[in-house]
Amino acid sequence: MKRIKSITALASAVTALALIGNAHAESGAPAGAATTKNQPHTTKPQPVGEKAAVPGTDQAFLQKAAESNLYEIELGKIAEKTSTNPEIRKIAQDIVRNHTAANQQLEKLAASKGITLPSSPTKAQQQKVAALESKSGEQFDKAFMQDQVQNTQQTISTFERERSRTSDPEIKGWAESMLPRLKNHLSALQSARPEAVGEKNQKQPQKSKPSMQQPQKKGASTGGD
CA 46 to CA 60: how far, in whole Å? Predict the structure, then answer.
């Protein structure tokens, strides 16, 4: 009797395996493999928190902006210590304050894009810093102001170009927010008094006062014969 029950159980197991095999055969999957019902092909989802890729031009812009900020901050600190001109020192203080704030904003923006910013100016900028440090007095003031005007003009051009070509709304917004500040800084530099850059005011020649005497008409007598 026990033998008959064992044979019956074995037959039931064989039948169950056969049914499973047939089901996999109909679905086209190998026996023992898991099956899915009409699962569509989808692209791999982006992991949560992963930064989207930033175009190379945007990345280069952010890195260049950081180098410019660091360069300006370093120059401003040098001018604060080196110049004895109150107007130059005031400009230098504004440079350090404004570019420090701008770089803090830039660091947050770059971090949100997964971009690592440089921690120092370029080698060429460092060489310019060293050249300025070797000067003093009016020679330093003039070289410092000339460098500031040139560098600010170049920075404005870089920001305007990035604003017009980037498709990233956050980078575009930051560039637009910086442009008015840069232009105001340039205006302040260009309106500095000549004494601030080591140039003396040239005395303008005095214009001769017009004669109060009425001009004589042609043909009028000038006196005796």
Answer: 24
